[in-house]
Inverse folding.
């Protein structure tokens, strides 16, 4: 049972969503086992570390797959994943820069583009900067 729990946690499943289902112990049992069974506590810690790495990879995948149509949902998902990973790793998640330990750093920058036309009438895509957005709103 402990192995099954750790395997599911390592895959990124959330304990509160599968505890008490399919023969799995209730939520509170997890805390009791972690306190009373050092081998389980160690295995569970490793499983959570694996899940944290999977979530960090998911941040990159979601960011790379974001489209104009999905940007709002993707921002929410990335923010939630960043919070979860930073909490698990004991690091601070910042708005634009995410520091992972001493050597790794993930920078997420959302860029916005619009279609524009040159003087000769040919279309092109240009990036909208923060100053462009403010001047349009004024």
């Amino acid at each position: 049972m402990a192995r099954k729990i750790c395997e599911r946690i390592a895959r990124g499943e959330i304990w509160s969503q599968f505890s008490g289902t399919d023969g799995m112990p209730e939520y509170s049992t997890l805390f009791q086992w972690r306190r009373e069974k050092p081998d389980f506590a160690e295995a569970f810690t490793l499983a959570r570390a694996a899940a944290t790495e999977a979530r960090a990879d998911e941040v990159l995948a979601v960011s790379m797959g974001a489209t104009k149509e999905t940007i709002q949902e993707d921002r929410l998902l990335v923010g939630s994943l960043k919070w979860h990973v930073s909490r698990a790793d004991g690091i601070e998640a910042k708005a634009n820069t995410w520091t992972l330990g001493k050597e790794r750093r993930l920078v997420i920058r959302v860029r916005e583009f619009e279609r524009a036309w040159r003087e000769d009438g040919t279309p092109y895509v240009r990036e909208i900067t923060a100053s462009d957005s403010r001047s349009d709103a004024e």
Remarks:
- Residues 116 and 124 are 5 Å apart (CA to CA).
- The chain has one domain: 2-137.
- The radius of gyration is 21 Å.
- The helical segments are 2-10, 15-18, 27-36, 38-65, 71-89, 130-137.
